[in-house]
Design goal:
single chain; alpha/beta; Rossmann fold; DNA polymerase, domain 1; 2 domains; six-stranded parallel sheet; 44% helix; 11% strand
């Protein structure tokens, strides 16, 4: 077993693709005859595509057959993929490369743990794919966060014990999943919303390299 591993969520942690998800869901809602607000979109953080559609239909009070449901799932993803087609390195959130560089230069295993089924192509578009030793996304898991499955698979792939893993998350469900996995949870975003995280930062610009080094050392020493 390796001594320490770092696991990153994708949307809202590494890149801001939430805006593209919102545009795709809003387009579907409008086509179904109702509005979908930015505030309502907060309900979708860290949630699977299937569950997002269920919530959206509840908001619009729309009933659907299984065939309609499956069709709308595909339509939303087609629209989302069209939005992200032109993503590049400019979409990477501030100071993420600094943290990844530090971990890579110090031979710390790095994994992605995301509900997104498009994680790999997104990482490739923004040029970060080579940093990751393992990518666990919506194609490999059957249980959505707050179930810890995605993080436990990532830990296993990195050959690291769960309690030696550090998780970066921007969603309440993701923080709960990390905590349930007995991992060190770090909230990226509003500390009042992510108050169950062990540590909180607005973004990576607030996180010093010394802090990252201390996490490596602390988990290495367990």
């Amino acid at each position: 077993m390796k001594n320490v591993g770092f696991i990153f969520d994708l949307d809202g942690v590494i890149v801001d693709t939430a805006k593209y998800h919102y545009l795709a869901w809003k387009k579907l809602a409008n086509a179904l005859g109702f509005e979908f607000t930015v505030e309502q979109n907060e309900l979708f953080k860290g949630v699977s595509r299937k569950r997002c559609l269920e919530i959206l239909l509840d908001i619009g009070q729309v009933k659907a057959s299984q065939t309609q449901f499956d069709t709308w799932m595909v339509e939303k993803n087609v629209d989302y993929l069209a939005y992200i087609e032109n993503m590049d390195a400019s979409e990477i959130l501030p100071d993420v490369p600094r943290v990844l560089d530090y971990l890579k230069n110090n031979n710390v295993p790095i994994a992605l743990g995301s509900a997104s089924k498009n994680a790999r192509p997104i990482l490739k578009k923004v040029g970060l794919l080579p940093y990751f030793d393992s990518i666990v996304d919506g194609n490999q898991v059957t249980k959505a966060k707050p179930d810890p499955e995605v993080f436990l698979i990532a830990a296993r792939n990195l050959n690291v014990e769960p309690d030696h893993c550090v998780v970066f998350e921007d969603a309440v469900a993701g923080i709960e999943a990390a905590n349930r996995a007995k991992m060190t949870s770090i909230g990226i975003g509003d500390e009042h919303v992510l108050h169950e995280a062990k540590y909180n930062f607005k973004d990576f610009t607030e996180m010093s390299t010394e802090f990252i080094a201390s996490l490596v050392q602390k988990n290495f020493a367990k």
